[in-house]
Structure prediction request, 411 residues.
Amino acid sequence: MKPLRALLCGAASAALAAAGLTAVVAGQASGATADTAALSGRWYAAAPYLMPLDNNPPDAAAIMDATGLKAFQLAFVLAPNGGGCSPTWGGTAPVSSDTAVGAVINTIRAKGGDVSASVGGYGGTKLGQNCSDAASTAAAYQQVITKYQLKAIDFDLEEPEYENTAAISHEIGAAKILQQNNPGLYVSVTTAGTADGTGWFGKQMLNEAKTQGFVPDNFSIMPFDGGFSGAAAQTSALTNFNSVLRSTFGWDTATAYAHEGFSGMNGRSDTGEFFSQADFQTVLDYATSHGMARFTFWSLNRDRQCSPPDNNGTTSGTCSSVPQASWDFAKYSVRFAGATPPSSPPPSSAPPSSPGGGGACTVAAWNAGSVYTQGNEVSHNGHTWKAKWWTQNEEPGTTGEWGVWQDEGAC
Prediction:
């Protein structure tokens, strides 16, 4: 995933304790020994991302009780920070000696759920970069599958790895080997999203898959952090990505959608885009009506309202920065899986679906011809904006958090 997913360091043991995991599974923590009967593929396709060791991990059991969610996408398996071709969680916690993630998995399985492991992500060193070939890369991932008795795995292929042709060849080759050696393994591939579906490197990754004769259960794009404004821009990107899949693999439209997935970001993205519950519903409707293969998001660690609420200024790894009830966004994954989540009260106020929206503004509207200096306030697209320095003809909301205008929230 994107920059927030690079926050993989920290005191994992302290974070795990904060997650409220029970001692019931402590005796099983050397691996994942609870019932490992596979769920339906639809649940693995709906599994949202969860960092089990960082970003203030929530209690998976509590999420399951509140939403009906059964599957979780655990993130991320990386190469060791010091080098080597052995799997770790976040580059620091060797899979071989792990007990903490195993405890999380056992908690989930004890309640009838299951997990997939996501390998790669944004930041850190990927195994495909360190391992010498596809076979050694696959052997490293097989350790993860074997230890946790996994029925599903996700290859999150993005910057900077997917700019390295050798690394991508290793990852795609490893995915193909794992698919062959683990019958029934659910395999997803996730990559960056752009307005035309995916960018040059994403298309090269697809071409590598075609060359190697590898077809996963789905190829998913992440339409955020790329100038997207709400659900309309995301569904447009998904339509364009369908065309990319058709032209690459020679599929018809329906077949391409049956191999296509969506991986969103709930709330405020790294670049200041906003994706509300209403945006998720629109994309969910698009995904189900087009027969898409996957609907997931980054992340469950963020699927709760910030305390105190912060609905305009920052992006957090531990909350969404939009008004919400806890686990609102997880319920869209539950619906994609074909289940009905329990009902819950709506958030206290309507969330923004983009920097637009909001109520009636009392300050003067922004004017392209006017000169503004530090501290001047204007209204634009339903929000109040404050100038950080002198400016003229720079539209509020178009330059991200590093621009001249500070978003002060909906009017």
Notes: Residues 6-30, 346-359 have pLDDT under 50 and may be disordered. Residues 128 and 167 are 5 Å apart (CA to CA).
